[in-house]
Specification:
Blueprint: H1 2-26, E1 57-60, E2 69-73, E3 78-79, E4 84-92, E5 98-106, E6 111-119, E7 124-127, E8 134-135, H2 141-150, H3 160-169
Antiparallel strand pairs: 1-2, 2-4, 3-4, 4-5, 5-6, 6-7, 6-8
Length: about 170
């Protein structure tokens, strides 16, 4: 008999505590954090640079197992207010073939976007049909190296000048 009374009393106490907790949480509004002010990231407006006539190529090291050579044009390098580092990327094969592209790297999200690809015969850009930002995967050695060189602690450089200095000072891993 004592056990059943104790069980009933315990159950009643637990129900009362649960009701009180739900009533307490209903009106709780923590004003210490400005979560409502945080807006989702939006990409800023960007205009493609002119096709490079006299670029200033800065080579960057991708890895010992990669035969291609990689370069970024310091004259086209920009850092937008949206935190995106944009540049012209040049990939050169061992046979001498070159591919140019206009790329953007969003440091904080570890993502990239290709804006356009170079037509070196007609000296023009062909805009990319893929507008979405994609995650920089582990096997994407070139973009990963660029992100490691440019994005210190996942933060975009403050200016294009700082980005150029970071690229020039990057270690040859």
């Amino acid at each position: 008999m004592k056990l059943s009374r104790f069980g009933l009393a315990l159950a009643g106490l637990l129900l009362a505590l649960a009701a009180q907790a739900s009533e307490y949480n209903k009106g709780f509004n923590n004003t210490n954090y400005a979560m409502e002010d945080v807006k989702p990231w939006e990409e800023g407006k960007y205009t493609l640079p002119d096709f490079p006539a006299a670029p200033d190529w800065i080579g960057f090291y991708v890895g010992p197992e990669v035969a291609n050579k990689y370069f970024a044009d310091s004259k086209s390098l920009t850092v937008g207010e949206d935190g995106v580092v944009r540049l012209i990327l040049r990939v050169q094969s061992p046979a001498g073939a070159e591919n140019l592209s206009v790329e953007g790297i969003q440091c904080s999200a570890n993502t990239y976007r290709s804006y356009a690809f170079g037509d070196s015969i007609n000296k023009r850009w062909i805009e990319s049909m893929r507008e979405e930002w994609r995650k920089i995967e582990y096997d994407d050695k070139a973009r990963r190296a660029l992100r490691e060189d440019l994005c210190v602690d996942k933060t975009a450089p403050k200016s294009a000048e700082q980005a150029v200095k970071l690229l020039r000072a990057a270690p040859w891993r």
